[in-house]
Amino acid sequence: MIAWSCGGLRRLVLAATLMLGLPVMAEDAASTTPAAPAVTATEALAAWDRFRAAPEEKLSEAPIFLKFMQSGEVHTVLRSEVVFWMYQPYPQDVQAVLYAAYMGGNLDSQLRGKKQGDDPEAGIGAALDAWATLQKSHPKLSMPQLDAWEKARQEGRLAAALNAGATPPR
Question: Average per-residue pLDDT in the chain?
Answer without folding.
Answer: 82
